[in-house]
UniProtKB/TrEMBL annotation:
This is Succinyl-diaminopimelate desuccinylase. GO terms for molecular function: hydrolase activity; metal ion binding. It comes from the Bacteria. The lineage of its organism: Bacteria, Bacillati, Bacillota, Bacilli, Lactobacillales. Residues 206-311 form the Peptidase M20 dimerisation domain. Its cofactor is Zn(2+).
């Protein structure tokens, strides 16, 4: 496929506003695109205007390799903070700007193009393309496809989330609490004499934290603010819990060598409706990033124990509700896919180092596909960078082109190593 054709596909997808919705429009577009190359695909409807897409290349009864990306994007935020229209692909100085270019429509397009080119090649393997809805907020699309069995027979799965970092912010990135990299590898990378020659450095993510969002609600008793003793202030009791929770998280010692510690982030506290009434409701919402050494279910039990203890106090009425619950992911590398990616990246990406291996705090659809296939080998590599979720999000133009070749080459090499003898 010619470069201008590849760019037009990305331009078309950026124009489709899929902020937490409307992925069906993208699914229909992709289905028609694949059909024009003689490839059949299935639109898996999940909700009004929200559909996943699945397509397959099956050449034998051997292992299946998955290619996965999500079609939803985050809000563009304040449009005035953008230098360009967030829903128009704009090329400037070797960068492609637009909402979702980095996270992750460029990755989705690269997977689609590699899939099309594989369909025209005589490689001996089986590939399944999985495009999902609602990854950004809930991972419900991956959950739906996983429960339908689309991940059960996968030997390995490539997820095209953005894994690049601009070289001028590389030191800040590798020293942040969002990434875990081997100290020797980090020193080698930062000591590269030619590092500043390159615009970006891409990594391969082989492990990421799980995550959980939950709400703790405090129920009190309303009263006139002139007679507060006749009520029970829900905010007071929520604060008791909040302080106890902070002590709990600060005391955690569990640690994973690839992921680090559990990351606690209390994000929303609300209570009361008006200033002349004692509030009878208050709540705290938290998102926590989890590690295998403190599994999600055990964490829930410990939080519930704090609530049970506080509820023994007079007037305290606290409750816990877990909204979303995704488990941590660690690559087994039993298919040698990490080495395959690194070897091919030497030839394809032309960066300071060929995909250094890291673990990160962010979550992906991998948690859901792994839930029903716990031995699934998963790696995350994609175009894009840390401008994801920001204004003036962009993807590097050459990386966008090169990543298609990388995916194609990795798939071919994967089946050379993993075909059933």
């Amino acid at each position: 496929m010619k470069k201008n054709e590849k760019l037009q596909i990305l331009r078309d997808l950026v124009k489709i506003n899929t902020v937490n919705n409307y992925e069906e429009t993208v699914a229909i577009y992709v289905k028609e695109l694949l059909s024009s190359y003689g490839i059949s695909s299935s639109i898996i409807k999940q909700a009004p205007k929200r559909s996943n897409l699945v397509a397959e290349i099956i050449n034998n009864d051997g292992p299946v390799l998955g290619l996965s990306g999500h079609m939803d994007i985050v809000s563009e935020g304040d449009v005035d903070s953008w230098k360009t229209d967030p829903f128009e692909l704009v090329e400037q100085d070797g960068k492609l700007y637009g909402r979702g270019t980095s996270d992750m429509k460029a990755g989705v397009v690269d997977l689609i193009i590699a899939f099309i080119e594989l369909s025209m090649d005589k490689f001996n393997g089986n590939v399944r393309l999985l495009l999902t809805i609602s990854e950004e907020l809930t991972e419900e699309g991956a959950k739906y496809l996983s429960d339908l069995g689309y991940g059960d027979d996968l030997k390995s799965l490539i997820i095209a989330e953005p894994t690049g970092v601009s070289t001028d912010s590389l030191k800040e990135y590798v020293n942040s609490d969002g990434v875990k990299i081997n100290s020797e590898l980090k020193q080698t990378l930062l000591a590269k004499s030619d590092l500043n020659v390159f615009d970006e450095q891409h990594f391969i993510i082989t492990a990421h934290k799980g995550w959980m969002t939950y709400t703790v609600t405090s129920t009190g008793k309303a009263a006139h603010s002139s007679m507060p003793s006749m009520g029970i202030n829900a905010i007071d009791n929520l604060v008791k819990y909040y302080l106890a929770e902070k002590v709990f998280y600060n005391s955690l010692t569990e640690y994973d060598e690839d992921l680090g510690y559990t990351v606690y982030a209390p994000d929303i506290i609300r209570g009361g409706k008006q200033v002349n009434s004692i509030p009878d409701k208050a709540y705290l919402q938290v998102k926590v990033r989890t590690i295998p050494q403190l599994p999600n279910e055990e964490l829930i039990e410990r939080l519930q124990a704090i609530i049970n203890r506080l509820n023994q106090q007079p007037g305290v009425n606290l409750s816990l509700k877990v909204e979303y619950n995704e488990c941590p992911v660690k690559c087994h590398n039993n298919t040698d896919i990490v080495e395959i990616f690194q070897n091919e990246a030497k030839l394809t990406l032309g960066e300071a180092m060929p995909l250094p291996q890291v673990g990160v705090s962010l979550g992906t659809d991998a948690s859901e596909f792994r839930r029903n296939n716990p031995n699934l080998d998963i790696v995350i590599v994609g175009p894009g960078n840390t401008t994801a979720h920001q204004a003036n999000e962009y993807v590097d133009l050459e990386t966008f082109y090169n990543m298609t070749d990388l995916y194609f080459n990795v798939v071919v090499k994967f089946f050379e190593k993993n075909l059933v003898k």
